[in-house]
Every structure is written in C-alpha cells, then in structure tokens.
Amino acid sequence: MYVASGRGSLSSTGNGPSECRHGVTAMPEYTMQGADYSRQFAGTVFARLDAQDHTHYDLSDFGYVSYEGRGYAIRGGNHLAGTHIVGATKANSVVDKNQRGWDQENLYLVGGGSMPIIGTANVTLTLAAMCLRSSRDILKCLH
User: Which residues lie within the region annotated Disordered (predicted)?
Assistant: First the structure.
C-alpha cells in the first residue's frame, strides 16, 4: 500500500519493493485533495438521496492509495496535459486562451496539452469547449 503524505509524496507501508509492481509513484497533493473532495461531495449526494455508498477499494488494486485515512483507486485519466500550457501572457504560457501560439500568428496548438493540470474528472467536455473556442477564432481569422 502507498500512503499520500504531505506535499504530493507517497510513502510505502507494508511489503516494500514488491508493491512497486503497481506502478504507483508520487501522487500530487492537488490530485488527492480533488479525489477527497469528490468523495465527500458524493457522500453528501448519497445522504440527500437516502442512498447507500457501496464503493470499495481493494488494497491489491493497481492504483490503490491511502489519503487522510481513506482508501482510493487512482489510476489517472490517461490524458496528457501541460505540454503547451494556456495562459494570459507570453511570459507564463505557450498559447493564448484560443490555443494560438504567442510567437506564430498562424499556429494553433489545439488539444489537452493546453491544460496546465488534469483534475479528478474526465476532461472531455472542457477539451471540447476549448477546441470549439479555437475553431471559432480560426474561422474569424480566415474571414
């Protein structure tokens, strides 16, 4: 088992090196806080619906981690991010809000790479909205 411990590090507890086969490395504090908040929010929803949570995370699960005394299965969304970060200025990013390169007027780097970090949910809708914004800007430039 791996335990998330302050500032995004994981400490191993239990059987030592054999646990490395799970492929789990450091889990950022941001990710674990997001997962923890999501679990708390789900608990609130279940309580309001008078529903029972039957979620169970097995210690032998590939992505099992423990955070704040609760177990999670963190496998990641397998979405790449942060390769060409979007931002407000050339000084802190590669592309503007339309995913247009700061240095080349005719270069758009459209995709998940513009997202500086992935949260706890699937990025499909956010990515679709970003691409729609880019396409609108491209069309505006063509006319």
Answer: 1-22
